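Hi R.,

Here's the chain you asked about this morning:
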Amino acid sequence: MKFLKNKWLWIIVIIVAIGGFFVYQKSQKTDVIEEVQVVTSDLLQSFNVSGTVDRTDRLALAFQAFGTVEKIYVEEGDSVEEGDLLAELGSPTLNAQYHEANLAVRSAEQELLLARRKWKDHKPEQREQFHLAVDQAKARRGQVASELNKTNLYAPRSGVITQINATEGEFAKEQSVMSISDGPFRIEALVSEIDVPHLTLKQTARATFDAMPGEELIATVTKIAQQATIIQDVVYYDVEFDLNDQPDALRIGMSADVDIVIDEKNNIIVLPLRVIEEDEQGFYVFVNTDTNGSAERRAIVTGLEGDDGRVEIVSGLSEGEVVIVKELEEK
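And here is the predicted structure, written out as tokens:
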């Protein structure tokens, strides 16, 4: 009787131990099964760069003389015509010199006029001296006028004043005091050497702007620099994009994000990249073959990888098939 009690006791201990082991294993690992249906969809592959808005054909303007800025006649955004006076330097010394030179011309002309009243009384060489005095006075006045003209800044062409870098009362040297442009807005961006090979002239892109939420413009690649720009040991290339539209809200210096399309395919078979396995034989998935969850390994060929984490399935799967994802998840 005692033997039977011990026997049952051992049986109960063994059952509890086995049950505890499986409970422990189940608490540690769980088979997670996910089913993903094979569908057809559109796929887009692109990359993004940040840029800055500028104008084409922007020209920096500077005085040809040194001095204090006395007057600025324009503001940023003003439209001007060729020859318009934009700004001038204060030049009291040159103004005084021009006044003196002008007086000298008048004096020489007056002496010539008085001499002509008794022209016959003067010898030929004396007559020539009167004319020479007038010519010399006029030449001197012309020299001073030329220097004085350098203190004025004129518009070299028609356009829009895009930037003013000077203020009245400050000393101006040879630096740019303002810029003028007669061209449309564009985007200038630095593109890394990794992405540049994906660019071609006339390639289209989509541009958005921090200052204009919801506004999207079509952009076109118009220039790809041949010379690299090195910034903190990273290689970039200057790229310019023309814009198909010119909203009134656009301003020079605005930040822009440009999405450049590398490739795009429509109505193709796709799968999430995360459900695809790979080994030495290549890419494969497990395809559900019946309602009981049985699966078969299926080799596949992939193509275009999209921005959204999906990939093109070139061969191996058909629309409507179900891919099973099995993984061992730690608790």
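One quick note: The CA atoms of residues 48 and 259 lie 5 Å apart.

Cheers,
M.
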